[in-house]
Amino acid sequence: MNTDSKTYQAYAKAHAKRSPMARDIVRAFWVGGLICVIGELLKLLYSSLTIPEDLIKILIPVTLIFIAGLLTGIGVFDNIAKYAGAGTLVPITGFANSMIATAMDTKSEGMIMGVGAKMFIVAGPVIVYGTVASLIYGVILWIAERV
Fold first, then answer.
1. Does residue 34 have a pLDDT over 90?
2. Is the pLDDT of residue 147 over 90?
3. Is 2's pLDDT higher than 90?
4. DSSP letter (8 states) at residue 74
5. In this predicted structure, what is the pLDDT of residue 135?
6. Who's near 104: CB < 8 A, 6+ residues apart?
7. What is the mean pLDDT of residues 52-76?
8. Distance between CA atoms of 3 and 9, rounded to whole angstroms?
9. CA–CA–CA angle 95, 62, 31 (5° rounding)
10. Mind listing the pLDDT tens digit for each residue in 102-133?
11. Measured between alpha carbons, how far is 25 from 87 in angstroms, rounded to an integer?
């Protein structure tokens, strides 16, 4: 590291506000839990409408994605995310938010070079590493079943 980099890191560390970890963990836990409760309520609602179980498994994430996208579009999701942190980022709602927010931010650059080209800037690594992690897990599971 060069001297400028070290100087900046020291400056940033000295001026960075410490995060109240216990409070952040509690907020993330209860908001993330609330999102899961909403998913369970959707399951009960869809079941009461005598919708087949296979379709319910599709409708729940689609509904949660729609709600997160709508809340992102009207500017509410960002406030929830500032309050709850990872509590909103870990579930599927965080993925929906990253897609919609990026699309909204880049729409002025056009549909192709803006929205189309940049929509996966944030969500892309999630897809890539999620796919790689599931592949590794699948290989481990496959090997474990044969041992």
1. yes
2. no
3. no
4. T
5. 93
6. 72, 73
7. 94
8. 10
9. 55
10. 888 888 888 888 888 787 787 778 778 888 88
11. 8
DSSP state of 143: H
Domain boundaries along the sequence of the chain: 16-146
**Residue 89 reports pLDDT greater than 80:** no
* DSSP, res 5: H
Token code pair at residue 38: 């909403």
- In the three-class reduction of DSSP (H, G, I as helix; E, B as strand; rest coil), residue 40 is classed as helix
Tell me the C-alpha distance between 38 and 3, whole Å. Answer: 51
Total-model pTM: 0.71
**CA-based R_g, the chain, Å:** 20
Residue indicated by tokens 């056009």: 110
H or E stretch at 82 = helix 77-84
DSSP 90-141: SSHHHHHHHHHHHHHHHGGG-IIIIIIHHTHHHHHHHHHHHHHHHHHHHHHH
Give 18's contacts (C-beta < 8 A, 6+ positions apart): none
Tokens of 141: 């599971």
Alpha carbon distance, N-terminus to C-terminus of the chain: 48
